[in-house]
Specification:
The protein is built from eleven helices and two strands, in the order ααααβααβααααα. The radius of gyration is 25 Å and the shape is flat. It has a two-stranded parallel ribbon with strand order 1-2. The longest helix is centred in the last third of the chain and has 42 residues. By secondary structure, it is mainly α. The N terminus is likely disordered.
């Protein structure tokens, strides 16, 4: 029988069991799961899961077009307004700056890009759900719990990162560039396409960086990283985090620290998750060894 595609994709094989039975004879091999499907059937299911996931995301994008005016006026243009919530909470006196369209298609692509980006972000959980439903049958019950935690954690971390990037990094970065003047003879008037691309980069970039704990969790599950390695490599991690913060933020130490501090916290959370994975693995190995000795 063709090996399960799900286990191939996960790089996993069922653990062989050959415990002796009560009469001293080796127990029969485990019965193959009745839910086992041929290789082509797995490909077909994967194809439909991707179709449903991408289709759900496309539906969300279409829905977002009905709210395009609100998305553009509030989400896209919001961070440039002095009344933006971040400036109000921080007590900042935000500097006004003008947005200009310098190309024929500039406003159209900024409008379409904003709506599509919002739809993709909101529709991403549906795609993640369908991918999870494809992978789930290949996991043992104890593994499913960990994967549910990882998939939920990945979604929450990504959304939290986008919110942090949009509400904190974006307005502070905009104000830095709005107040930076090479000469009093030069006024800051930003192009709408550049403005959109920077807002998207600051928001999505921080969202991706916030996936750090999830990435480390999977590496710990695979045995590639350990909590000791993470503790010993803390200084190197600090340097890398500062570099990443400098890449997605303006050349402003305050903005870099604002991005770096949450990443430091996420790194420590990831270290604790790796230690938790190691403890669970040690307990599982101890139980398996005890079963073999008592069999």
């Amino acid at each position: 029988m063709v090996k399960s595609l799900r286990r191939v994709l996960l790089g996993r094989k069922p653990a062989p069991r050959n415990l002796a039975s009560g009469d001293g004879q080796p127990s029969p091999p485990p019965v193959v799961d009745s839910g086992e499907m041929p290789f082509l059937d797995h490909l077909e299911e994967l194809r439909w899961r991707l179709i449903w996931g991408m289709g759900s995301m496309a539906v969300v994008v279409v829905i977002c077009f009905f709210f395009a005016d609100w998305i553009v006026d509030v989400l896209l243009i919001g961070p440039k307004k002095p009344s933006f919530i971040t400036y109000q909470l921080l007590g900042m006196e935000a500097k006004e700056f003008a947005l200009q369209n310098r190309t024929i298609t500039g406003q159209f692509f900024a409008w379409a890009g904003t709506v599509i980006t919002a739809g993709v972000i909101l529709g991403a959980p549906f795609l993640i759900y369908h991918l999870w439903k494809f992978i789930e049958p290949a996991l043992y019950p104890d593994e499913r719990e960990g994967m549910r935690f990882a998939s939920a954690g990945a979604t929450l971390c990504f959304m939290a990162g986008i919110a942090f990037g949009y509400l904190i990094v974006t307005p502070l970065s905009l104000q830095f560039f709005a107040n930076f003047e090479l000469s009093a003879e030069i006024s800051n008037e930003f192009d709408i396409t550049k403005y959109f691309s920077m807002v998207a980069m600051w928001s999505l970039g921080v969202g991706i960086l916030f996936e750090l704990p999830v990435v480390i969790y999977f590496l710990a599950k695979a045995g590639i990283l350990t909590s000791d390695m993470l503790r010993k490599g803390r200084r190197i991690a600090i340097v890398i985090i500062m570099i990443l913060g400098a890449i997605i933020t303006p050349p402003d130490p305050i903005s870099q620290l604002i991005v770096a501090l949450p990443l430091f916290g996420l790194y420590e959370v990831a270290t604790l998750l790796a230690a938790r994975v190691e403890r669970k693995r040690a307990k599982a190995l101890a139980r398996a060894a005890k079963m073999e000795t008592t069999a």
